[in-house]
Each structure stands twice: as structure tokens, then as C-alpha cells.
Design goal:
Blueprint (H helix, E strand, L loop, with lengths): L1 E5 L4 H12 L3 E6 L2 H10 L2 E4 L5 H9 L3 E4 L9 H19 L5 E6 L26 H7 L6 E7 L2 E3 L6 H12 L2 E4 L5 E6 H14 L4 E5 L2 E5 H12 L3 E4 L4 H5 L3 H4 L8 H7 L8 H6 L13
Helix pairs in contact: 1-7, 3-4, 6-8
């Protein structure tokens, strides 16, 4: 199968490219820089130059492929509304190319803002262009009624592994900067988690087995308490561990505090049964203890 992937050199995208190529698929990745293009070519993937704002490029990529996996997103917290509008235009463009083809069209999403713990049958409340991420999960699933085998890929808030520069890497950075590994309040708030290789394998299985309109959960662990995450980071960097009072969370953690203090838990039983998928990678705490977030294991962001 020829698969067009956006976000192809990102954290999840890179693992997905590896999984697809290893399974014999032909892959074209969207690349906005020479460095990204070189990474894709080194793996044996084809390259389509452009970015998420280049709608004509996205159209060409979708037209030439048997399936589209949209993992790209502009994580610009200074203009998150603008990032949502860009993402909505991208999803609308890609979906319209695929109308009536019954080709797979998978769009990355998340768990924040949905009643906890999130199950696959829960509908996202984010609808319309002014919603978070431009309401793209709902938009993508709308295409299931137009002859597109579209599905939502809901990723755990931490998709972890050696080389991750996401949420847990940011928590580790804050801990080193502050000299203490903190957790909000009593530390019972929890996050879902999944190893990046498990997430990539789930996506690959979905290409053949996910029905139109599916909501798929890349979740290996339902609820990892924030205190346990902080304790593991403390062990990794030999730092004391402490509770951060609710009124000081944002000041202590910065932007990541809005997420670390929010519950983001989910199950994946339906996804596992639907795809025959069983997460086998290490858990989040094991990954931290094994050095996945050591100083030399996390690349510089950007």
C-alpha cells in the first residue's frame, strides 16, 4: 500500500514510517526542510516537499496515495488558534480528495477535554473551526459518511520512549532547572501513556482493519499517577521530590503545568480487540527508570 504521511519526521511520525516500511508499505512523507527530507530518504521513504499550509501539495500527496495518515500539527502555543485553523484546512483538503474512494484517512487527535476515563465510544466535544485543533477529529469522522474510511487516532498524552522531546521530557527539564521533581497537589492526578513503538504498530494495523468512523486509542497504560512520574524523574536525576501546591503549579511548571495538573486517562480495550493489538513496550515508569529521558537521550526541541 502507498501511504502518504504528514508529520513524517516528528516523534510519532518517525516511528510510524519505520513500522510501515518494515511491513513492506511504500511511504511518502511530507517534509518542510532539507534535513527532514534527508531523514526520510535515508530510511527509504519518498519525499514530498511542503508544509501543512501548502494545500495544493497536500492535495497532490493524497491523490497519489492509497492511504493518508495525518500526524502533523503546528504546536505553536503563541498562536494555537491559528494552528487549529491550519490543521482544519489541511484535514478538509485531504478528506475531500478521498471522498468516494473508501481509502483510509487517519487523523491524529488527543484525550484532553473529554470526560475521564476516555473510551472509544465517547464523542469529542470539540466541533467546528474555533474548537481546539480546529475540531479536526469531528471533521475527519464526518468524511466517513462520504465514502472515506476515516478514523481518529487518539494518542495518550505521553507517547514515550528514548528520544522523546514531548511532555515528559519537558517535565524532566523543569525538574533539573528547579532542582526538584514536582507533582501537582497530592499527586493522584493521572495520565494515560503508550510506548511509541506500540503507537506506531497500532497505526499500521489500522490501515487494514479499522472501519470507517472508528475512534482508536493509542493507550498502553490507563492511568499513571503524576506522583509516580515525578518520583521516577527524581530517581533519574537524583533530585528531591515534592508536592507543588495548586496555586503554584503554573508558576513552577510553566506551560506544561496546565497539562500535568489535568486528568488525561483513557482505556484502549475496544481498540485492542478491534485490531488484534496488544501493547508490548515498556511502561512509562520503566522507560524513565531505564534512562529514556537521560540528558543524552532527549534531542533538542525543534
Amino acid at each position: 500500500m502507498h501511504v502518504f504521511v504528514t508529520g513524517a519526521t516528528g516523534w510519532i511520525g518517525s516511528a510510524t514510517i519505520n513500522e510501515l516500511l518494515a511491513s513492506g508499505h511504500r511511504v511518502t512523507g511530507l517534509a518542510r526542510s532539507d534535513a527532514s527530507a534527508a531523514k526520510l530518504e535515508a530510511k527509504g521513504a519518498e519525499v514530498l516537499r511542503g508544509n501543512l499550509g501548502d494545500l495544493e501539495v497536500l492535495r497532490r500527496g493524497a491523490e497519489s496515495a492509497d492511504a493518508v495518515i495525518h500526524l502533523g500539527f503546528n504546536h505553536d502555543f503563541s498562536d494555537i488558534a491559528g494552528a487549529g485553523r491550519t490543521d482544519r484546512a489541511a484535514v478538509d483538503t485531504l478528506g475531500n480528495v478521498l471522498v468516494g474512494t473508501n481509502r483510509p484517512f487517519f487523523v491524529a487527535s488527543g484525550l484532553a477535554g473529554i470526560q475521564q476515563p476516555v473510551t472509544e465510544d465517547q464523542v469529542s466535544p470539540f466541533v467546528g473551526p474555533d474548537a481546539p485543533r480546529g475540531g479536526t477529529e469531528a471533521l475527519a469522522l464526518d468524511f466517513a459518511e462520504q465514502g472515506v474510511r476515516s478514523a481518529a487516532l487518539r494518542f495518550a498524552p505521553t507517547v514515550h520512549g528514548t528520544g522523546d522531546h514531548g511532555f515528559v521530557a519537558e517535565l524532566a527539564r523543569v525538574a533539573r532547572e528547579k532542582g526538584v521533581s514536582g507533582y501537582p497537589g497530592d499527586g493522584t492526578n493521572a495520565w494515560a501513556a503508550v510506548h511509541v513503538t506500540d503507537a506506531a504498530r497500532m497505526i499500521r494495523l489500522a490501515l487494514t482493519d479499522a472501519p470507517a468512523g472508528a475512534r482508536l486509542h493509542a493507550v498502553g497504560e490507563t492511568a499513571v499517577p503524576t506522583r509516580q512520574i515525578a518520583e521516577a524523574i527524581g530517581r533519574a536525576f537524583d533530585l528531591p521530590v515534592a508536592s507543588i501546591p495548586a496555586g503554584q503549579v503554573l508558576d513552577h511548571f510553566g506551560w506544561i503545568g496546565r497539562f500535568f495538573g489535568s486528568p488525561m486517562t483513557a482505556t484502549s480495550l475496544n481498540t485492542q480487540q478491534l485490531l488484534g493489538w496488544t501493547p508490548t513496550g515498556p511502561g512509562l515508569i520503566t522507560d524513565i527508570d531505564n534512562g529514556a529521558y537521560a540528558l543524552d537521550a532527549v534531542p533538542l526541541a525543534g
